[in-house]
Amino acid sequence: MALNHDKHVLVEKPMAMNAKEAEAIVALVKEKNLFFMEGMWTRFFPAIRFVCQQIDDGVIGDVHNVHSAFGVAFKADNDRIWNKELGGGGLLDIGIYVLATATMVFGIEPEKVTTAGKLNDEGVDVYNSITLEYSGQRFATVEYSTLAKMSETVKITGSKGWITIQEPAHASREVSVVTFTEDGKRIEKTSLFQHPNPSDHHSGFQYEAQAVMDAIHSKQIERSEYSHAESVGIIKIMDKVRQGLGLMYTADR
Q1: Across residues 7-24, what is the average pLDDT?
Q2: Cα→Cα distances 229→19, 224, 226, Å
Q3: How far is 221 from 202, CA to CA, in rounded Å?
Q4: What superkingdom does the record give (predicted)?
Q5: Residue ranges of domains in the chain
Q6: How do 125-134 and 186-192 pair as beta strands?
Q7: Cβ of 116: how many Cβ atoms within 10 Å?
């Protein structure tokens, strides 16, 4: 509706229920030449920008593995989580975060998607362990749960060491980098990043808001940190995950 009335849009994730809907939105964005972004605020935190730069600079060598987990013990009366007709379940709410850590490092085209999850009596997903296999013997293993809190960290492992994004990884301000010298000596460095309001990680929304404002002022229709292609690519992966779980929404029919 907003796009049809020529309004720029920053939309809460997920941008759509499935890839068909997502592709239709992106097509309209391009037709209207308007800014549009799915709200993956994590990408704009200084800690995450630092991680991407470390990987690009080859600090940990060739990356072979990503592991990410996110769990929240949602209350029983949270209709948004438990109502299937509202897109309930963990995948679209918090699973998208852990999948985005994989695509941030390895891209949106895994060769194989394997899922081992559980649906509850209402038919929504409450736990899942997903493995994404990429070319070149690269793997991402991601987990999420709506039943229990999990240690929300991300570990990115390469040929020369690893990077750990400390919890809460979706709004982190602490990153540890471990590397090894040629003679096997371990070197560990921890970098700390402050949020605009140090006592409230939600103040980190300011980073995303500034990026959107800058894009609109410069007449861009997307941000490279979280492009239209990546949004659609992740939803395509989630469609495959749901297929593996046997989870179908009304929008799929």
Answers
A1: 97
A2: 11, 10, 8
A3: 25
A4: Eukaryota
A5: 3-247
A6: unpaired
A7: 12
Secondary structure of residue 107 in the 3-state scheme: coil
Q: Match 């975060």 to its residue by tokens.
A: 97
- The fraction of the chain above a pLDDT of 70, given in percent, is 100
What distance in Å separates the CA atoms of residue 90 and residue 128, rounded to the nearest whole number? 8
Give the pairing of strands 138-145 and 154-158: unpaired
Element housing 140 (H / E): strand 138-145
Q: What are phi and psi of 73, to 5 degrees?
A: -85, 85
- The structure's pTM equals 0.95
Here the tokens at position 248 are 């179908």
DSSP-assigned states of every residue in 164-224? EEPSSGGG--EEEEEEE-TT--EEEEEEE---SSTT-GGGGHHHHHHHHHHHHHTT-SSBT
What would the pLDDT profile of 199-227 be if each residue is shown by its tens digit?
888 999 999 999 999 999 999 999 999 99
Cβ atoms within 10 A of the Cβ of 58, count?
12
Side chain identity at 233, as an amino acid letter?
Answer: G
- Please give the single-letter amino acid code of residue 5: H
Residue 130 CA to residue 138 CA, distance in Å, equals 14
The dihedral formed by the CA atoms of 205, 211, 213 and 215, expressed in degrees to the nearest 10? -150
